[in-house]
Design brief:
Layout (H helix, E strand, L loop, with lengths): L8 E4 L4 H14 L5 E5 L12 E4 L7 H9 L3 E4 L6 H6 L1 H22 L2 E7 L24 H16 L4 E5 L2 E2 L8 H11 L5 E3 L3 E2 L2 E2 H12 L5 E4 L6 E2 H11 L8 E3 L1 H4 L14 H6 L12 H4 L2
Parallel strand pairs: 1-2, 1-4, 2-3, 4-5, 5-6, 6-11, 7-10, 8-13
Antiparallel strand pairs: 9-12
Helix pairs in contact: 1-7, 4-5
Length: 306
């Protein structure tokens, strides 16, 4: 096993909603470490500024992972790259498999060969097909995804842990928080739709354990410096519906509840793809982390939206 030549932290998918915040959190923790790299197909620096070096990364190119590791020799890697929209995964199943299963396998293999520490991001949507768990799903509960997105993320978890036994797979929930004006995440996408004159329809019967993207990113970077392996749930404290989450976001911005329409999932025609309950039990993560894992209603308003 080759020892990494540098202390660099590499964030794959660093231009995405979560990835950009992971880059910022990695910079904040770096101290005297030499470099943080943000790798993505279309680098975006609105959130990360100039403290991170952006590098081009085409996840679909056959040798892209190996070439990146050869160039950068990272010591720590966070994999955020994914095809994460449920509708996109249904429309482009092979692309979903390439990004959510095969890419994680390739990254994990590269980390195993180089000795780099790997934390890879998965989702609460690997659950939902079975009966809801009181207190949320734990790490040992069997996955039961209802969408192609959930299935590919579940298979990606297996691929990572088979290729790199000391990797950590972190399942995260619905994330909210600032996206640098890009309309990404649960809060900015909602506010962007309202700004366009729309009245978003939010489910009253879809339960999640949402978390601030800022807190999720801080937790991922803290976990890079641990030896924990396997699977871990990083989520907010509160079981809440998409509608109630939306109301909290509106209150944080001084907007009326009339800006959104409460509906049942059946009315949206997405019941087959969106589980009624995908809440996570994050007690184990809270026992490990010093980073807070609060949730909607607890975090300060600035963590909700800008």
């Amino acid at each position: 096993m080759r020892k990494p030549a540098s202390g660099a932290t590499l964030v794959l998918g660093g231009s995405g909603f979560l990835g950009a915040h992971v880059v910022m959190a990695a910079i904040a923790r770096a101290g005297e470490e030499p470099q943080v790299y943000s790798a993505s197909r279309q680098p975006h620096v609105a959130l990360t500024g100039s403290a991170a070096r952006t590098v081009p990364f085409d996840a679909l190119r056959a040798d892209s992972v190996e070439a990146l590791f050869e160039e950068l020799s990272p010591r720590r890697v966070v994999l955020c790259t994914a095809l994460a929209k449920i509708s996109d995964c249904e429309a482009y199943p092979e692309l979903a498999r390439a990004l959510n299963v095969e890419l994680p396998r390739r990254v994990a293999s590269a980390c195993a060969a180089s000795g780099a520490r790997l934390v890879t991001v998965s989702t609460d949507l690997v659950f939902g097909g079975g009966a809801p768990r009181a207190g949320g799903y734990g790490e040992s509960d069997p996955p039961a995804p209802v969408s192609h997105y959930g299935r590919t993320k579940m298979e990606g978890e297996v691929a990572v842990l088979e290729a790199c036994g000391n990797a950590l797979v972190v399942r995260v929930p619905l994330l909210f928080g600032p996206s640098g004006g890009r309309g990404l995440g649960a809060s900015d996408s909602l506010l962007a739709a309202i700004a366009r004159g729309e009245r978003p329809r939010l489910c009253t019967d879809e339960w999640r354990t949402p978390l601030s993207v800022v807190e999720a990113a801080a937790a991922l970077c803290e976990l890079l410096d641990t030896q924990h392996a396997g699977r871990l749930h990083v989520a907010g404290r509160h079981r809440i519906t998409r509608y109630d989450l939306g109301l909290w976001m509106l209150r944080a911005k001084g907007l009326s509840a009339e800006c959104v329409e409460p509906v049942g999932s059946a009315e949206l025609g997405q019941g087959a793809l969106r589980p009624p309950d995908a809440c996570l039990d994050a007690r184990r993560a809270r026992s490990i982390l010093s980073s807070p894992l609060t949730g909607a209603g607890e975090t300060v308003d600035s963590a909700c939206c800008v």
